[in-house]
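Budget justification aside, the reviewers requested a transparent look at the raw inputs and outputs of the sequence design task funded under Objective 1. We therefore reproduce one unedited record. The lines immediately below are the structure tokens for a 690-residue chain.
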């Protein structure tokens, strides 16, 4: 390929990648901004007795200083104490009821004393003339002995004390206890006189409510004015009751003025620009420092999903106020935990900071929120590097809980005035947050399956030699199984020394030779009785069978749904190396023939990670160690150095980020471990015969 062709290819990929990044940024920004609240929530966070954290505020327009809800309620209650509800007097009620009573008494079969009926009618007439109300209304008004009502008599309205009126119940009781009638109480009860005691003072709801509204309308909602250009409050000034009222009044006026379409548009554009800048900066970080993540769809999907989901959740909580819970109950620290486990610490921190700052747009100027969540994220990153046990999640949750509590307490102590009253309700929210952090363990399975990652827990499960493929490998190819275990131990020790992923490389080592299960007898470690099937094959056929264990292993891995990261170990443990035994043997037997190297070359690719490079070195040296004639420090050292140096010379490690220091440490570990494996034992003396 010419240099021009390479430039064109590079340019094509550049523009393609740039287009994908721009599309990803725009899509993420649009989704987040769409859910952000529109002019929701308080623009400032402040409390009485705390200093003003923001800059000096000058009124941009005139606005009234609204009274507090408590003050308005007191004024309303004071006016309503003297308010008189309206009732209508109905003379027709008395006429109708007394007419019915006379008719019923005349027809009654109950013998009445002389003049008894007239006395009853006279007493009822007296009650009706005073006024009778329904009992519930009467009781509600009679609780206040000074209460009066406005009774409308035709075109006139008079104020009448409630004590001068009767309820239907009190009128009936007084009738039964009347001095002239009390002796005949059993007779009175038989007459059911309560049926003839009906309210003639009837509540006028419409007129009452109209009068009440007219009365309350005279209350002014404001107790002063702030003129345009007047200072509202300056930075650092303590917020007192008066300043609190002025600030609340300013916010109400701002909300009233921000209902126009222009203001809503400006707010939307502001949110969009803010979120866009943060997402772009996060993308720049990945481009400059973690370009490898951008080439992996699963990494991109996970990172941008995390910085999108939590701002949406915060926006929904702010808009709908679910159960009056604070946003502090959301386990934001889960994001750096998962990113740290599956990727790295630096990316975890950048993802967390980006997400928190975007969430702050929904909360608007929440300094406390930003500080608390950043501290929680840092604690989670420091406390949980790898999730291999449930106890680690519990410890992290406890540490995050105490860190958020202490940080919030410190912030409130800094902001407090002379009187410090901690808000204990917030600590309940932090406790719920800590409990939700425990969901990290079960959620890891969902994150793994959704984005295609492999956790340490999954690797530990895969490395169980008592089930699955590994158990089958131990039965079908016991020599290969023992070789894999030894390689895994060597590789994990190297990984621990150089700071690589020990659990990953050990699991990869256990599966790297599973392809040998197809033809186990063709590999020396599984041969018994001195029988070698290669004796009856040509070098090309033997090489094909040996090399095929790589592709066979990948097929077996796919059939058993092994993770892609494990399959990569199978593909790369030989790289583009050669089956040198059969290659050299073929060359020796055909000295005049130009040998096709591709027949004797493994399909590759070469290792692309440090862990894969470690496995290649450990596998090669462990296999070659069985061919040594003597196991001395010099022979083992020479073998390891020769093999690893040759791999470096052949360029097997040029595509992975392994350093010369890592390779030197790996060689030292291999030499020490192989010496320990093949150490000489003392000969036990035999007992002399007497």
């Amino acid at each position: 390929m010419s240099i021009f062709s390479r430039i064109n290819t590079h340019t094509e990929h550049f523009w393609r990648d740039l287009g994908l990044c721009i599309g990803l940024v725009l899509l993420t920004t649009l989704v987040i901004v769409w859910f952000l609240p529109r002019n929701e929530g308080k623009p400032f966070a402040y409390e009485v007795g705390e200093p003003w954290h923001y800059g000096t505020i000058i009124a941009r327009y005139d606005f009234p200083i609204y009274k507090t809800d408590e003050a308005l309620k007191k004024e309303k209650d004071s006016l309503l104490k003297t308010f008189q509800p309206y009732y209508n007097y109905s003379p027709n009620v008395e006429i109708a009821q007394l007419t019915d009573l006379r008719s019923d008494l005349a027809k009654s079969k109950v013998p009445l004393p002389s003049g008894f009926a007239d006395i009853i009618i006279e007493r009822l007439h007296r009650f009706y003339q005073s006024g009778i109300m329904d009992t519930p209304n009467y009781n509600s008004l009679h609780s206040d002995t000074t209460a009066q009502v406005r009774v409308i008599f035709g075109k006139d309205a008079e104020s009448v004390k409630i004590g001068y009126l009767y309820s239907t119940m009190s009128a009936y009781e007084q009738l039964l206890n009347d001095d002239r009638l009390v002796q005949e109480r059993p007779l009175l009860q038989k007459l059911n006189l309560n049926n003839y005691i009906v309210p003639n003072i009837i509540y006028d709801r419409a007129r009452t409510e109209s009068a009440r509204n007219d009365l309350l309308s005279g209350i002014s909602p404001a107790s002063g004015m702030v003129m345009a250009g007047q200072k509202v409050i300056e930075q650092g000034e303590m917020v007192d009751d008066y300043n609190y009222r002025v600030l609340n009044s300013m916010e109400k006026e701002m909300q009233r003025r921000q209902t126009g379409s222009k203001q809503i548009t400006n707010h939307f554009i502001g949110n969009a620009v803010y979120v866009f800048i943060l997402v772009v900066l996060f993308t720049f970080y990945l481009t400059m420092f973690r370009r490898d993540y951008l080439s992996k769809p699963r990494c991109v999907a996970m990172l941008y999903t995390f910085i999108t989901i939590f701002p949406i959740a915060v926006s929904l909580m702010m808009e709908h106020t679910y159960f009056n819970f604070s946003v502090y109950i959301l386990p934001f620290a889960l994001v750096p935990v998962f990113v740290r486990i599956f990727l790295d610490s630096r990316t975890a921190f950048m993802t967390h900071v980006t997400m928190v700052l975007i969430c702050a747009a929904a909360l608007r100027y929440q300094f406390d929120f930003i500080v608390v969540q950043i501290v929680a994220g840092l604690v989670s990153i420091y406390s949980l590097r790898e999730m291999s046990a449930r106890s680690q999640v519990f410890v992290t949750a406890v540490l995050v809980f105490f860190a958020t509590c202490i940080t919030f307490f410190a912030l409130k102590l800094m902001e407090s005035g002379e009187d410090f009253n901690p808000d204990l309700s917030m600590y309940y929210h932090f406790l719920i947050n800590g409990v939700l952090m425990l969901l990290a363990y079960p959620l890891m399975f969902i994150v793994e399956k959704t984005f295609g990652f492999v956790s340490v827990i999954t690797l530990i499960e895969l490395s169980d030699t008592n089930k699955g493929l590994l158990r089958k490998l131990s039965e079908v190819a016991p020599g290969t199984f023992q070789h894999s275990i030894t390689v895994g131990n060597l590789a994990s020790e190297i990984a621990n020394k150089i700071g690589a992923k020990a659990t990953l490389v050990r699991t990869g080592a256990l599966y790297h030779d599973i392809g040998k299960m197809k033809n186990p007898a063709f590999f020396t470690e599984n041969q018994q009785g001195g029988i070698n099937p290669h004796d009856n094959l040509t070098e090309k056929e033997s090489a094909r069978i040996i090399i095929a264990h790589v592709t066979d292993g990948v097929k077996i891995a796919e059939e058993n749904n092994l993770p892609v990261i494990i399959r990569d170990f199978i593909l790369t443990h030989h790289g583009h190396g050669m089956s040198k035994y059969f290659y050299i043997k073929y060359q020796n037997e055909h000295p005049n023939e130009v040998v096709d190297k591709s027949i004797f070359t493994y399909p590759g690719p070469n290792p692309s990670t440090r862990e894969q490079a470690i496995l290649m070195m450990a596998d090669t040296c462990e296999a070659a160690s069985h061919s040594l004639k003597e196991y001395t420090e010099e022979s083992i050292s020479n073998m390891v150095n020769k093999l690893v140096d040759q791999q470096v010379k052949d360029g097997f490690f040029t595509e992975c980020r392994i350093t010369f220091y890592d390779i030197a440490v790996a060689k030292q570990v291999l030499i020490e471990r192989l010496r320990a494996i093949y150490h000489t034992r003392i000969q036990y003396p035999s007992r002399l015969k007497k």
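The chain is about 60% helix and 5% strand. The chain has three domains: 3-39+262-451, 77-217, 464-677. Computational costs for records of this kind are itemized in the attached budget.
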